[in-house]
Amino acid sequence: MQQLRVVCPTAQGPEVVGMLEQHPGTALVTRVPGAPEGAVADVVEALVAREVVEDVLDRLTDLGVDRTGGVTLQDLDLMVSVPGEEAEKAAPGDAVDAVIWDQLVATTGDDSAITPMYLAFLVIACLLAALGVVTESPETIVGAMVVAPDFGPLAAFAVGVVGRRRDLVRRGVTALLVGYPLAIAVTAACTLLAQALGLFDPGVVANLEEVSFVYHVGPASVAVALLAGAAGMLALTSQKSATLIGVFISVTTVPAAGFAAVAIVAGDWSHAGRALLQLLVNLAGVAIAGVVVLHLRRSRMGTLHHERLR
Question: Comparing C-alpha atoms, which of 219, 225, 245, 217 is closest to residue 287?
Fold first, then answer.
């Protein structure tokens, strides 16, 4: 269930309450006239089943609440309420299948912002990947995959394409175009330093058989990227956040970037080129699968919404 809070002009209060009380999947609708104190506004709160949140938001938008007031939503980790449980049972569909579009836009928008934290995580992930490849340590490579924050920009790109939000598409692409070159450059600089200190032998690049998946591009690379992108978008839109960890481990993006930096320093342009191609294939595959899955999910939710209105 979600806790819905609506702030609207006092004249709109009864209309908002009436809509919420008549909508299946809502419970405990309360109205506080004239709140916050001193303002000519009402505060209306209600419990709303996740599967009808999108429809409720659409109806509030039709009432013009987004222009005259505001709407906020909060996830409820615990609910002890018989009316709330009955409302959840009355709501059509399944909560895990529900997509709250406004929430998805906000989440992916935040996750694709070019912040010092985003850049730091990507650089650290790339450095871990380089270390894992050079030492042929799968555990370190897996750690780099988990740390990498690159699914956020890819998800923003998918949401932007499906929702026709050019700002999200631009934001996601920019985060990748800024983040990866920076991470590769820092990793290359650290590799040069390690070479100068005698800690890195360029000759090892040509004999990394155990981690060859990092730069071997083939049908399996495309299949893994598409499947991981589909799983990632399903996890994101159904709040199965734990599944995202598996997605990160499956995709060879950061490991390929880290290896490319090492191969460039070693002067092995063949391996570097193949690693960069692996990076591009995986990024493209995840993005394409994310767009397709999100489009299908949104189309299905639109069909359910249409059936509820009939």
Answer: 225
